[in-house]
Amino acid sequence: MKTSSKGKKKKKKISMKEAFEKVKVINSKNNKGRKQKGFRDVWWKYPVFIARVVRDTRPLSYIILFSILAGFLCLYLVRDSFLDSIKKEEKFDFVEGSVGAISSLNPIFLTQNPIDKSIHELVFERFIEIDKEGDPSPGIASSWDISDDFLTYTFDIEDDHFWQDGEPLIIDDVIFTFDSAIKLAEKYNTDSVGVPLVGMEVEKVDNNTIKFVLENTNAIFFEAVSIYIVPKHRLESVSLSDLRFDIFTKYPLGSGPYKVVKSEPNIVMLEASLYYQFPISIPEFTYRIYDDLDSLEIAFRNEELDAISGVDSGGMSFVEEYSNYNVLEASLEKRTKMIFFNNRRDSLSDIDIRQALNYITNKQSLLEGSGIPGEVALGVLPPSSWAFNSEAEQYSYSPEIAEGLFENMEYIKNEKNGYYEGEDNKILSFTLSYLKNESNDRLVNVLKELWNDEGIILNLDPLTYAQITQEIISTRNFEMLLYEVETTVDPDQYNLWHSLKRDYPDLNLSGYEFNRVDILLEEARTEQSKKIRKEDYILFQKYLMNDAPVIFIYHPQYKYVVPADLIGPELENITFPENRFRNIYEWNS
């Protein structure tokens, strides 16, 4: 059957108004002869009504509908919760910030840099651990035996440690690490962790056992071997002379909880190792390094950081504005900020001048004036040490005693200008070199004012980290040097004060020498009897404090700012700042 085209009508587009009129007419027709419907009847049929309007007003109705949906979508996207979730996906799981610089991430080299040490703790594992009391505990080595004469130590290692590339950590890695460290110290005169191990023989007994044979007994042996182990298969092809310059110093490979995936001067990014022996709750860890405290504060306020480490309270008051963070604190008694007098210089070679400068230094006022939290250092060892000598001179503030000592050196205070002057009417002055940073700047400027009030001019010589390490420490070219040193848990301080340690790379920065002190330090570190060792250290402190080669200023207060809901971090049992990461695999929120 054919259909004629004449019967077809072209569909006419109607307006929204005409559609409503049409619906109204249809409803009117349908309602004829029926009982009038109430509001409830109309309300229950609103979907049919809306669908008819949308259908008859296409495409205008579609434009309106999609515009409404787009509006709701925009409102959702700008909600805080949505933006927060986007931010969380973009940033690493845990970001810590600190002021300072990186020197080397290869733990075979000695460092006083807390940032280096923090990253070492995240990337590597120690041969053995040392607790707060100085006692050894298992690390890579699980057990050990000591010979009756204290000259042979035998260690066993377990086979459950793996490098971050999946290779097993074996006894050959341990042998390689100790051999390399000792050779660097002995043959290349390098400041490696092998310095206290020189003279020891390291032998492989079997695939799980290593033996150390000592020439003499060593009371600090366990601390000496508590070093991070490095992989032989990664470094054996690198000559020892080139080891410091190898890419390993930027991209180390360890057996610890985290692997370095990006390393730049201002940022180190790490990922949880797939081969670590414990599951890790924080899969990614970023360590950001800032040049100054202002930059760190800006990053914290912009929510770029989850934690702040190593910042003194004088510059971190802004944290108090945030109730969702906790500030953990610990006194670092094994770190001491001191002013080294260069005993090699004529200006500081006389004991009277060194003692006088100690007596005019009001340490408590210095800390309070600079806003630096810390515990005033009383001497070579802290009062908590079992070898502390409370009767050794502590140089309490006494300008009267200082004046008498200055007069012995023929420096008389000029009543008109208030300064000490020599026979040539030249004002007594000194130059203090120091690492320029926020904390040190405050400290030295307050010290300058305090000494100025006492009649001494102090000239300040601010330096970069590279200048301090490469120019000042390596050449001993300074008059006075503000420097922070870290000592062992054991009271042994052979490396700081023995005359054989006067030259680089050792740390007798003052150039101090006294044969009686040398003998006491030698005897104390080779003696096993704690009673005899204490007697030696009592005398050592008496002689050293009397000679006053330095001004012991304070033990720093370490602060760690972390989110209040973060479970795991604690500073109660730490000795050094990097110890905060010992249980990082347990951290969770």
Strand-helix topology:
Blueprint (H helix, E strand, L loop, with lengths): L15 H15 L8 H6 L1 H11 L3 H18 L2 H11 L3 E6 L14 H10 L4 E3 L5 E3 L2 E6 L5 E6 L13 H16 L14 E6 L2 E5 L7 H4 L7 H4 L22 E7 L2 E6 L11 E7 L2 H9 L5 E3 L15 E7 L3 E7 L9 H9 L3 H8 L3 E3 L22 H10 L3 E2 L6 E2 L7 E7 L2 H17 L2 E7 L1 H11 L4 E7 L7 H4 L17 H12 L3 H18 L2 E14 L26
Parallel strand pairs: 1-10, 1-11, 17-18, 17-19
Antiparallel strand pairs: 2-3, 4-5, 5-7, 6-7, 8-9, 9-10, 11-20, 12-20, 13-19, 13-20, 14-20, 15-16
Helix pairs in contact: 11-13, 12-14, 17-18
Characterise the protein shown here:
It is a single chain. By secondary structure, the protein is of the alpha+beta class. Among the domains are: 142 residues, Dipeptide-binding Protein, Domain 1 (Dipeptide-binding Protein, domain 1, Alpha-Beta Complex); 222 residues, Dipeptide-binding Protein, Domain 3 (Dipeptide-binding Protein, domain 3, Roll), CATH 3.10.105. It contains 18 helices and 20 strands. Strands 1, 8, 9, 10, 11, 12, 13, 14, 17, 18, 19 and 20 form a twelve-stranded mixed sheet that branches. It has a four-stranded antiparallel sheet with strand order 4-5-7-6, with helices on one face. A two-stranded antiparallel sheet has the order 2-3. Strand 15 and strand 16 form a beta hairpin. Helix 11 runs antiparallel to helix 13, helix 12 packs across helix 14 and helix 17 packs antiparallel against helix 18.
How do you describe this structure in short?
This protein has helices at 16-30, 39-44, 46-56, 60-77, 80-90, 114-123, 171-186, 221-224, 232-235, 293-301, 351-359, 363-370, 399-408, 438-454, 465-475, 494-497, 515-526, 530-547, and strands at 94-99, 128-130, 136-138, 141-146, 152-157, 201-206, 209-213, 258-264, 267-272, 284-290, 307-309, 325-331, 335-341, 374-376, 412-413, 420-421, 429-435, 457-463, 480-486, 550-563.
